[in-house]
Amino acid sequence: EEQRSLLLSTTSRFPPPPGVKLSYGTAGFRADAGVLKSTVYRVGILAALRALKSESVIGLMITASHNKVSDNGVKVSDPNGGMLSQDWEPFADALANAPTPEDLLRLVDELTANKGIALDGTTSLEILVARDTRPSGESLLEAAKLGIESVIGAVASDMGILTTPQLHWMVRARNNGEKASENDYLEQLSSSFKCLMDLIPSGNENNQVGDKLIVDGANGVGGEKLIVLKEMLKLKGLTIEVRNTGKEGGVLNEGVGADYVQKEKVVPNGFGSQDFGIRCASLDGDADRLVYFIVPSKSGNNIELVDGDKISSLFAVFIKEQLSILKKEGGAKLSEDYPCRIGVIQTAYANGASTDFLKQLGLEVVFTPTGVKYLHEKAAQYDIGIYFEANGHGTILFSEFFLLWLKTTNNELCSVAKGSEQQKAASRLLAVSRLINQAVGDALSGMLLVEATLQHMGWSINQWNELYRDLPSRQLKVKVANRTAVVTTNAETKVVKPPGIQEAINVETAKYPKGRCFIRPSGTEDVIRVYAEASTQDEADRLANSVANLVD
Ligand code: 16G
Ligand code: ZN
To answer: Where along the chain is Mg(2+) bound (predicted)?
Structure first.
């Protein structure tokens, strides 16, 4: 009874905005910040119930990632640090759109009965809440706390301003009984990075890597955190310069950031031809995406993009090298004792040249629909699952079993120099598993792994970029009244509805050598997206345009 009146009274303070219907999409709820207070409050309730159900720590993140600064959003991290379990999404939608406090109470009653959640206050569970640097974040975070604390037994812990992957990491660490503060996160990243650097084979002194990295922080939270991390690293032989930290007056994601750089393929603000020859990287607004790029030598705006597929390929090469050391004669008999299944997960957006490259390396490549939750789920089925979207979101997952096996091969976490080649390879893989975020894609940890890998290989960004040459591609979007009219299958590569469209796409695609084209409904906007690839830019453009006309 106390619970019912608490929920009714608090909910009445957060009426849903009239005429707005929101849905928990691939990235949670996202909208103009002005309409989000009630939604965020209600997601607070959802996170509290999820915590009680799972008897674990849950996370709630307030961010709209790469979207414009006036937008905001909210998403939930599950106990393992991954996205909210998909079977809770319909409940999230219903809760967010419940018109009256009584409707909301009814939904909560239904869910608690269904899932067997006792709201008797006998247990106390924590929900970690954090936000990015958006000005609207502070008051939305207050709304989230009120939502959480309107459920008896749930306690909100305000973690302040964090990157999205930092929050997911903390949730995971807490539930694993590990140290889980922000400092622990930074400490784990820097110690495992140093371990990888210490294990670089000698003889790479004359490498081409280049000792400077310039990072575009998207005027968001990532730049700030990177400055702290950089101090902890006390790097020798590597200088990281951070630009677009948000402190120089630039606007979040405006003409900057990983999404802008990847979609527009142009130089972000604050960069120019003076940076030619230097490795450049770009984070997005909440630092869960990372791309690298090379600026043009002279005037002009077009960059050479080194995207998520290239990052995935770089990591695959490095990991494959370590595995083959482990498999060598006299080693730990990797293939006999334990096969180690490795897989690379991509979406239909992956450049066809990257897929060919990975397959030629002898790796298993599988496809899922767009959206981190799908890639992550698939990657978790391997001993080593490497997943990246072309847009730069991704990570590498290691199975518990494989990590245990590695530890028996080398129980010293970072035994430099002394060990055998096999032990060093095992140490490197263990360090990678600690450096790269096991919860979700993380631009900061991914960047440190790229840096360590380039140093290990002795490769410049150009050498890395030349692993394969991207096929020219074009992305378009077509505004439609109802995007759900388009239904796809086979990891979004085939249209099943409306009838006839796929046949028409096939006819267009067949006109171009190396042509490949697909359409899919966006999960975040009211548009149909078109992607086309062909052997020349002009042909990719023509293919995309002709297919866009079919959709219109
Ligand atoms: C979201 C997804 C991202 C995906 C993008 C596609 C997460 C955390 N983020 O940003 O993975 O690439 O949506 O957007 O899952 P679209 O459906 O509008 O093309
Ligand atoms: Zn993001």
So the answer is: 65, 284, 286, 288
